[in-house]
Amino acid sequence: AKRLSVLNNINAPEFIDKRAQSTLIATIRQQGYIEMNDDGLLVSSKSMAEIKATVINLVDIEVLQSIPR
Fold first, then answer.
1. CA–CA separation, 8 vs 2, rounded Å?
2. Coil, strand or helix: which one is 4?
């Protein structure tokens, strides 16, 4: 399923590796880039804004424009 999703450019939730996604989110939280708000939702922290600014300055505009938002 994962291989077919890549070949066909399918970006559906059922094709996402849940363990990898969970590990990524946990690591980003531990590093302080995201945090829980009062409603229990994940939100970006001030550190994330700093990283974003750094990445924007380091990466070519063509690459930035190719990244889906």
1. 10
2. helix
